[in-house]
Write a structure and sequence with these properties.
Elements lengths: L6 H16 L21 H4 L6 E3 L1 H4 L7 E6 L9 H15 L5 E8 L3 H10 L5 E7 L4 H9 L3 E5 L10 H19 L3 E5 L7 H20 L4 E7 L4 H13 L5 E6 L5 H6 L41 E4 L2 H15 L5 H16 L4 E6 L13 H6 L11 H6 L2
Parallel strand pairs: 2-10, 3-4, 3-6, 4-5, 7-8, 7-10, 8-9
Antiparallel strand pairs: 1-2
Helix pairs in contact: 4-5, 4-8, 5-6, 8-9, 11-12
Bound molecules: pyridoxal-5'-phosphate.
Pyridoxal-5'-phosphate binds next to helix 5 and helix 9.
Length: 402
Amino acid sequence: MVDDPLAPVLQFCLSALLVLAFQKPPPSRSCSSSSSTPSIISTAYSRQIGSTPLIKLSNLSSFLPPSCAIFLKLESHNPGGTGKDRIALGMLNSVLASLEPHQHLDSIFEGTSGSTGISLATLCAPLNVECTVCVPDDQSPTKFAQIESVGGKVHVVPTSSISSPSHYVNVARRLAEERQAKLDKQGGGGVSVFMDQFNNLANFRTHFTTTGPEILQQMSDRKAPISAFVMSAGTGGTVAGVGNYLCQQQSPPPRIVLADPPGSVFHGTVTTGVAYTQEQKEATIRKHRYDTICEGIGLDRVTGNFKRHNCCDSVKVTDQQVVDMAHFVLRTEGLQIGSSTACNLVAALHEAKRGGGGNVVTVMCDQGKNHIQRLWNREFIEGKGLVWPGAQVEWEKWLETL
Ligand SMILES: Cc1ncc(COP(=O)(O)O)c(C=O)c1O
């Protein structure tokens, strides 16, 4: 046998290759690990966000003059059941994209009426990022249970004014700062973020680049130019983002109309330029923050996202109209809606009848099942001094009052 001088070299190379082949792969950027966060979220959940259906409410529209129709963008079809999925993903992706190579996202904090908390907590679950949400105590408890069930932490905070340090948004901001101070002491590049959906413009941008284009495309496919887009405001991200997009892209531009519940200053801001509402008069206010059964909408301050609105008009909606509309939609279309959707529809019908008609688009913000403890609870509604609509309501007469 002739000795091959290259044999030891070949043997070494072969063993090195075998070692490499059976070595554990390096941790993937998309796997959850405390020291590695992906630069963009891509999960089964995140990939289902957006591209929601838009439907015509034919039965409800039949109560209007023939030239009018109401269309509903079903944001309730997002995987978390609300349009908040869109902005939670938008805000998280913008945080992840801003991290330095030596940093990782440790935790996020948010002040929310609940829906944004559900979306954030669900998106954080595969990231190994702790999600804490601070919620006011006047919201439906089902939302809090949902957040906890996916691993989020919930701080229920007594309802108070934004000027108070114990307001849910201020508590969330403070907790994020305290966590960051701890992380800084530890070293290791951990980052804690206050998401700030009210002022974070990733919210506006998300609706400008996704919800707005979807609505325009869906209405163009139906060859139905949009006469008006009607929407309530919580952070103001939807009405401002969609409103600006539609007015930039459609000619002639649609009317952008705000739907505002009692106690909110947004209506005054749109109609008079003054962020004030009658319900703020001393001795008339029932709660510190605002005076409505509506959840997730209406505010006692103007937010960074709402400042970008291009509304030309606003409809002030009463709580009784919200209750009545919820029952009317159930009877005519078989849809169980929530309070903000009912508020949107009251203003949409008002706009269809008085604002010039045509195709009025509004939003189904979430699902009625989130509201069974409040809007769909007779005891709760009557306890608020409101009337539970009976089977005898003459809806045509009721519609004339809008
Ligand atoms: C159920 C529901 N509807 C409507 C809105 C308002 O949407 P936006 O925050 O984009 O103004 C919110 C906001 O939190 C909400 O939770």
